[in-house]
Amino acid sequence: ITGGADVTFLTRDARAAALKTTGLVVKSPLGDFSAPVKVIPAGTALASPPDAVVLACKEPALAEALDAVAPLLGAQTRLLPLLNGVRHLDTLAARFPDTTLLGGIVHGATDLRPDGVIAHLSSFMTVITGPVATGSDPVADEFVAKLKAAGVDAYATHEIRQDMWNKFVFLAAFAGITCLMRASIGTILQTDAGRARILHLLEETRAVAVAEGYAPPESLMEEYRALLTEEGSTLTSSMLRDIDSGRRTEGAHILGDMLARARKHELPAPVLAIAAAHVQAYERRLDAKVV
User: For 8-158, which CATH superfamily applies?
Assistant: First the structure.
């Protein structure tokens, strides 16, 4: 919006009502933001198809979101999901085979507060995007330009699948260990076997990426190891925040998918398996409404 883009929001009814009343409100260490925004309900026809449809939901809401945006897609519209993980790319390609698909990732922690304010929890925000197919894409380049104009650290890449896998490796380990232990990284490191279990899980997810053909650079793995073994760290994953708030998680999409790929390649993944089972048990309790 601040970068000059013409943005329209399509959200659920309750969120749409809040946006119409208070506008979009963001609280961030990088600077607060608030503004009135255009909001449309699902099923609304636009005068012309948009250049891009950005999916900013979490995986549990993906099916509903795809139904909502389907009428908006024109012949030249790009579809850009900013979801964690990688398996949604296959879902989108199967659902919209004639639509140009972009990949995207966001580095930065956020949370939607009960009062409707978006809380930016980290001191950084980076967006990476690019075409899932090879080459460059003018819409992706323009999207990045608008983000940069708004002060967001953003860039386009020709290797978005590799970038998505790089994040997937980290996130599966980070979310897996914090959810399994129900604690921050710093607290986990205070336990007898915490450091060893963190590093073991990170190696499990790295091995899956290697087997899938997306080996993370060793320099990046060193950064991950340092980040996940920082004494006193207060880092917690958004998946753990979802559990603490009694919300649905991306457990199946992140931990379950990573575990399924480990099993496909017959790779040992004992810590990942128990972390996935832990979150799955939480989801079953939600199903039974006994949380």
Answer: NAD(P)-binding Rossmann-like Domain (3.40.50.720)
Q: What is the pTM of this model?
A: 0.92
163-286: CATH architecture: Orthogonal Bundle (1.10)
- Quick: pLDDT tens for 213-268: 999 999 999 999 999 999 999 999 999 999 999 999 999 999 999 999 999 999 99
The CA-based angle 144-111-131, given to 5 degrees, is: 25
Active site residues: 167
Matching residue, tokens 């575990």: 259
Instruction: Give the 3-state DSSP-derived string for the chain, with helices as H, strands as E and coil as C.
Output: CCCCCCCEEECCHHHHHHHHHHCEEEECCCCCEEECCEEECCCCCCCCCCCEEEECCCHHHHHHHHHHHHHHCCCCCEEEECCCCCCHHHHHHHHCCCCEEEEEEEECCEEECCCCCEEECCCCCEEEEEECCCCCCHHHHHHHHHHHHCCCEEEECCCHHHHHHHHHHHHHHHHHHHHHHCCCHHHHHCCCCHHHHHHHHHHHHHHHHHHCCCCCCHHHHHHHHHHHCCCCCCCCCHHHHHHHCCCCCCHHHHHHHHHHHHHHCCCCCHHHHHHHHHHHHHHHHHHCCCC
Q: What is the mean pLDDT of residues 107-128?
A: 88
**For the chain, what are the domain ranges?**
8-158, 163-286
CB 159 within 8 A of CB 131: no
For a pLDDT cut of 90, what percent of the chain falls above it?
Answer: 81
Q: Calculate mean pLDDT across residues 101-125.
A: 89
Both structure tokens of 89:
């790319």
pLDDT interval class at 291 (50, 70, 90) = very low
